[in-house]
Amino acid sequence: MIDTHHHFWKYSPDEYGWISDEMPQLQKDFLVPELNHHLDMSGVDQVISVQARCSDQENRFLLDCAKHSEELVAAIVGWAPLCSPDLRIFLDQYINEPLFKGIREIIQGCPDEQFLDNPDFDHGMREITHRDLAFDLLVFHDQLPSAIAFADKHPNQRMVLNHCGKPPVSNEGMKDPDSKSWARNIRELARRPHIYCKLSGLTTEIQDPESKSQSTRHHDLLRPYVDTIIHAFGPQRVMFGSDWPVSLLGTDYPAWLNLVDEFTLSLSPDEQAAIQHETAAAFYQI
């Protein structure tokens, strides 16, 4: 099994300013030993390490973690200055790094003109397409219409939507207007065959604090959102991810694994294998 989305970090308030005082469980180091502890008896054989800082330093850090992981880390998704005229020089540093498989930018919450509707960013995307690198698409649910337009500009670029597009998980499920809008946009985005989706990060998107804290409610709350993703993309374009350690804000590693097992129980063995590892291996060329 491949976990397609986790993070390593050596915590410091300056480096990880997005980790607020309301997230004390994240205010510590999360490195290879901590990950191995959570993976013990999990069935996860390999992981993909995803950037949590926008810097070249982050890429070097992730590659160093990978080299000390005894082949646990199958790939890293790093960062690159896609709007920079020096992008080619920057990416040339990683030509001989076989684990450097993709790029992610922190697009969530940013105005369209910064990334999704920016000619310089489009130019950068064409460069990573030319280099056959994957792209992790991180947006909030209200940015999905812009993400659809962005995907149409880059039909030859492999993209994977992070955390199911961060739906506003509501106690009302698909009766909630924002959830309805999310589902409609997900189905439209999934019509593009070059777009994939990570089944990850959903527990942290639960809107009601009381419901988020009651793990026994997570199955019923998340089921309509997971069903929407699997029906829209199909198992061949869905891949499992934990979003560890950020996921600790909503659940623990074994609980999320158990939830995904429950959500996919009705699928065929081939469809389950796709979500568990085959989709990820093909997408990231592992």
TrEMBL record:
It comes from the Bacteria. One of its GO terms (molecular function) is hydrolase activity. It holds the Pfam family Amidohydro_2. Residues 2-285 form the Amidohydrolase-related domain. InterPro entries: Amidohydro-rel (IPR006680), Metal_Hydrolase (IPR032466), Metallo-dep_Lactonases (IPR052350). Keywords: Hydrolase. Belongs to the metallo-dependent hydrolases superfamily. PANTHER family: AMIDOHYDROLASE, AMIDOHYDROLASE-RELATED DOMAIN-CONTAINING PROTEIN. This is Amidohydrolase family protein.
